[in-house]
Amino acid sequence: DAKTTQPNSMESNEEEPVHLPCNHSTISGTDYIHWYRQLPSQGPEYVIHGLTSNVNNRMASLAIAEDRKSSTLILHRATLRDAAVYYCILRYPGNTPLVFGKGTRLSVIA
Amino acid sequence: KAGVTQTPRYLIKTRGQQVTLSCSPISGHRSVSWYQQTPGQGLQFLFEYFSETQRNKGNFPGRFSGRQFSNSRSEMNVSTLELGDSALYLCASSLLPDTQYFGPGTRLTVL
To answer: How high is the pLDDT of residue A62?
Structure first.
């Protein structure tokens, strides 16, 4: 499985944008980039995914580098409820299992 | 629409016993996956079932098994429990290959 590298932890002030980076230099042409997050005492939650183009949804935006070797999850206005561990996952198309790394623990300060 | 439900939420067992955990997927979802989460190893894939057939399997010993019923509900079983099996067991269901929806998990403690 292609690997991803994320910072162990990040901190943000409430109501400010947050940019969570992910490096995946060995990504293959068919790997999708998925982001999940896990809030305290909950199961993981899908955030967003993309292949080549930038993606937006109600939760976040995903910016994918042109060479696809890195991506950034953008939370436009962090709230206290966004404090979670964020996982960047590369996934081959189809029902392949999610391979979780250690993720980035995001703390949001009021 | 109701989310993924897992029962029980908490469980305490002793070494050598066996345990069965249950997962009810979101209505209409036919794929169910199981994951184990521990502080040391993080989230690890156990197995995935689709239409009552195991489609993918992770790298876990044969003590870990599962099954899926015709209504897509799934169970996983761990026999001869070891202390290291203490973990949060998560179930996820999916309709399409892209997105998995996770339940709250079952916290298993082995004494």
So the answer is: 98
C-alpha torsion B56→B58→B64→B68, nearest 10: -20
In which residue are the tokens 């996820």 written?
Answer: B92
pLDDT of residue A96: 83
CA distance A106 to chain B (A): 17
* Closest C-alpha among A48, A44, A11, A50 to residue A27: A50
Q: Does B36 touch chain A (CB under 8 A)?
A: no
3-class secondary-structure state, position B20: strand
Q: What is the DSSP string of chain A?
A: ----B--SEEEEETTS-EEEEEE-TT--TTPEEEEEEE-TTS--EEEEEESSS-EE-SS-EEEE-TTSSEEEEEESS--GGG-EEEEEEEE-TTTPPP-----EEEEEE-
Alpha-carbon Rg for chain B in angstroms: 13
- The answer to whether the peptide bond before residue B8 is cis (omega within 30 degrees of 0) is yes
B24 close to A (CB below 8 A): no
- Helix, coil or strand: residue B83: helix
Q: Do B45 and A98 touch (CB under 8 A)?
A: yes
Using alpha carbons only, give the angle B7, B101, B93 rounded to the nearest 5 degrees: 65
What does pLDDT average to over chain B?
Answer: 95
pLDDT at residue B68 in the model: 97
Each residue of B70-96: pLDDT tens digit? 999 999 999 999 999 999 999 999 987
A55: closest CA of chain B, how far (Å):
14
